[in-house]
Amino acid sequence: MAEKYFKKFTPDISFHKDTYIIVGSGIGGLTTAVFLAKAGKKVVILEQHYTPGGFTHTFKRRDGFVWDVGVHYVGNMDEKSKLRGIFNYLSNNRLEWDAMGDPYDVAYIGDKRYEYVAGIENFRNKFYKYFPEDKDAIDTYLKKLKSSTLKSFLFYVQKALPSPLRTIIGPVLRSFHAPIAKRTTYEVLRSFTDNKELIAALTAQCGNYGLPPKQSSFAAHAIVVNHFMEGGYYPRGGADAIPQTILQHLDELNAEVFIKARVDHIVTEKNKVSGISINGRVYACKNVISNAGAHNTFQKLLKGKHAVNLKSGNTKLHRSTAHFCLYIGLNKSDEELALPKYNVWWHKSHDLDENLEKHSFKKNELPFAYISFPSSKDSGWAKKHPNTSTIQIIGKTEFENFKEFEDTEWMHRGDKYATLKKDFEIAALKILLQLYPHLEDAIEYTEVSSPLSTKKFSGYQEGEIYGVTHAPERFTQRELTPRTKIKGLYLTGQDITLVGVGGAMSSGILTAITIIKWNMSRQFKEITSKFTKS
After folding, report:
1. What is the DSSP code string of 282-312?
2. How many CB atoms lie within 10 A of CB 479?
3. Residue 534 has pLDDT above 50, yes or no
4. Cβ contact 184:474 at 8 Å
């Protein structure tokens, strides 16, 4: 990370009253920051971690091993795509991407293997071969994916409308979206097929949004699958190339970024933002943009009458899933080990809901695992880290399994905690070596993170990685919008849109539109102009 583009927060720092203070440096906050700074606003980003980037940052250990913590691939990054054009704008054309090729994902479900390839017709033909008796069902599925796009677009657009207009038009736009949002993925798929193996194969990538078919909203499933329909891409130079290039651009725009700046709470007076508190000291300001997550914002950063328990009707809006992650360093290159670029989704059986049920992890056995090969996806890895490679294996768990260790010190949580992590490591390696037995002698280093690690470094209180759950009730919650009921307080980040780099980036755009309104049209013209020329 290029430290010259950020600095450690100190108590003597002060802010101009008109500064827009962004709490959290994830991609949602960084995106909002660029658009505000380009509009001439004074912007300051406060990050509680020792490095900016949120889930786009990376970490390293001895022998040059480096792993991403949240960016395993991104879709819609073809050179002619609009998303690519926006990231060019955010990074001032510094961010480059490597295509993962075909397949970009592979699923092992029971004793079957399925490949996911780029392009809707390629996808169609591939699944025709897997399920020759279910061509009509596959066609229906792809039609539903396509028809969901406009409905989702209208749903998110209404979130950025001014309050009076949103009151009038919002219900109409939400009504178009409701049929796909209120039904689970399983309910929608089951309406046109009873082939459980087909349903499992179509939803095997459900870890991308954290819920199995019978729990997830079809709206979330459709957006994520559409996002990857043209294949997967990875940032050249590693995941932290995303924040590095954007931070450099923000520095050029005179925005300031501070690390180790943990905000205690947002200060309000008469339903308006009047400041923020850091280490007990209040810093006056009029505008705060929270990229800390909806639950954190409404239940931790806001106090008294402004604290809100997020609900959908009478139903509590739950936090998303937590996870284990095994980080593996190998003493040979990707080429020598023939590591793939594609990600692996491993499911014990075709009952994905059972595989991902609560407390599904048992000692020495995983019913679900996600395997990523970050070094092989990055074309710049071999030059920077010769004769090494890296792998990550993710499994599902619950935060409640770790509550007894919550008040212990990081890296010193005791033998019982270490045993929990070792059990996961053994189970994860069992799956990896079942698929790639030749890797065993090349494993040089291993380390396991738990939901407590996620809580420490991201600030998510229950170690959740996807913010608010992507169940149907998420889409009926009225608090998940850029504009809050408190004047001067805004939200950005995955909770107001959807999970993932693309979702969080979109949230940053929605928040910027809400704040600077028509200035955004000028900036979009600039983006379109550059995109057209390229």
Report:
1. EEE-SEEEE-S-HHHIIIIIS-GGG----EE
2. 18
3. no
4. no
What angle (nearest 5°) sits at the alpha carbon of residue 323, between those of residues 348 and 241? 110
Question: What's residue 313's pLDDT?
Answer: 66
User: What tokens were used for 78?
Assistant: 């073809």
Asked if residues 518 and 160 have their Cβ atoms less than 8 Å apart, the reply is no
Q: List all residues 6 or more positions away from 488 whose beta carbon is below 8 Å from its beta carbon.
A: 272, 273, 286, 287, 288
Average pLDDT value for residue range 476-487: 93
271, 484 in Cβ contact below 8 A?
Answer: no
Closest CA to 494 of 315, 297, 345, 326: 297
pTM of the complete model: 0.95
Tell me the pairing of strands 272-278 and 281-284: antiparallel
Residue 521's Cβ-count burial label (10 Å; 0-12, 13-18, 19+) is exposed
Q: Are 530 and 88 a contacting pair, CB within 8 Å?
A: yes
d(CA 437, CA 415): 30
Mean pLDDT, rounded, for 502-512: 96
List Cα–Cα distances, 176 to 164, 183, 217, 243, 455, in angstroms: 20, 13, 15, 35, 36
pLDDT for res 494: 96
Supply φ then ψ for residue 229, to 5 degrees: -60, -25
Mean pLDDT computed over 475-499: 94
